[in-house]
UniProtKB/TrEMBL annotation:
Homotetramer. Pfam families: Peptidase_A25. The gene is gpr. InterPro entries: Pept_HybD-like_dom_sf, Peptidase_A25. Keywords: Hydrolase, Protease, Zymogen. Autoproteolytically processed. The inactive tetrameric zymogen termed p46 autoprocesses to a smaller form termed p41, which is active only during spore germination. Belongs to the peptidase A25 family. This is Germination protease. The keyword Cell membrane does not apply. Initiates the rapid degradation of small, acid-soluble proteins during spore germination.
Length: 316
């Protein structure tokens, strides 16, 4: 699959790692202005993509910034010890991005529609996060050391509220004045293998719905007035991508040649406006496990003085 097909189908890649893989595969060389680092662990691989200038931004289709991708197929397994390791890895990467004094107020935003399971990751994470801002204001005696003032919000989606999500968040930001926003959202992946096995951190904010062609107002430093860290997990892939991959594999196995299949694929997907998405049948379990990992990593990064065993005391 190449970038021409993605452009014809109007597909935007949510994962910076996938964008780099496609572009680098076409050119056969590293992209100028893009730098990459790798870290390996027993149950995960971490890839850090740095987009360093505007030229690289144009080529990658991603804003200048740092994109950390944690690839952990073990997330799909019922292995609590491995999940704990992935949580700790994610927490360490998140700590590096936060870089704020402990007294700084942080707002956690769970993006998505809680009524649609593949899009419910953000609200599920918010349900499991340890919020403490009210305790700092009303019950400081209940707090232990090593805790940070954290508030959380699951604003829903435009179809549920009639209000742009960015407008709701901006109103809360104006009242609570956080030093940082952490936004969690479901993403779309090019590769089905990355569904619920890959977690991306980005210090550039997020454009909700961009991966499925449903672009909403951006949630970033420019629109919010404060720094935004985005955490995303692919929960769907596009049917057009699966169709293109299947055609390419068939042509390769038969030794034929592949022409421009985008028109045929568009025709097949026409009843769905060309934006049919696919998610695994076990998505309920995958969302629950992934939300647990992300919430755990946020709790560790936000409140280093609290052990996981003590979280239940503060969760209500």
């Amino acid at each position: 699959m190449d970038s021409k097909f993605l452009n014809k189908m109007g597909i935007t890649l949510d994962l910076a790692l996938e964008a780099r893989e496609i572009i680098r595969g076409e050119t056969g060389q590293e992209i100028p202005g893009v730098r990459m680092d790798r870290e390996s662990y027993d149950n995960a691989n971490v890839t850090i993509v740095h987009i360093e200038d505007e030229a690289a931004q144009t080529i990658m289709g991603k804003p200048v910034g740092t994109y950390v991708t944690v690839e952990a197929p073990v997330i799909k397994q019922n292995n609590q010890q491995a999940h704990k390791e992935v949580t700790e890895i994610l927490a360490e990467q998140l700590k590096k991005m936060i870089d704020l004094p402990m007294e700084s107020n942080v707002l956690i935003v769970g993006l998505g529609n809680w009524n649609a399971t593949p899009d419910a990751l953000g609200p599920r994470v918010v349900d499991k996060c340890l919020v403490t801002r009210h305790l700092f204001n009303y019950a400081p005696q209940e707090l232990q050391g090593g805790m940070r003032p954290v508030s959380a919000l699951a604003p829903g989606v435009l179809g549920l509220t009639g209000i742009e999500t960015a407008e709701i968040i901006r109103g809360v930001v104006e009242k609570t004045r956080p030093a940082l926003i952490i936004a969690i959202d479901s993403l779309a992946a090019r590769s089905v293998e990355r569904i619920s096995t890959t977690i991306q951190l980005a210090d550039t904010g997020i454009n909700p719905g961009s991966g499925i062609g449903n672009k909403r107002a951006g949630i970033n430093q420019e629109t919010m007035g404060v720094r935004v860290i985005a955490i995303g997990v692919p929960t769907v892939t596009l049917a057009a991508v699966i169709a293109q991959d299947a055609i390419e594999k068939y042509i390769q196995s038969t030794g034929g040649q592949l022409g421009d299949a985008s028109l045929a694929i568009k025709k097949v997907l026409e009843p769905f406006g060309g934006n049919l998405t696919v998610t695994p049948k076990e998505i309920d379990t995958l969302i629950e496990d992934t939300a647990q990992i992300i919430a755990g990593s946020i709790n560790m990064a936000m409140h280093p003085g609290i052990s996981p065993q003590d979280y239940a005391y503060y969760l209500h």
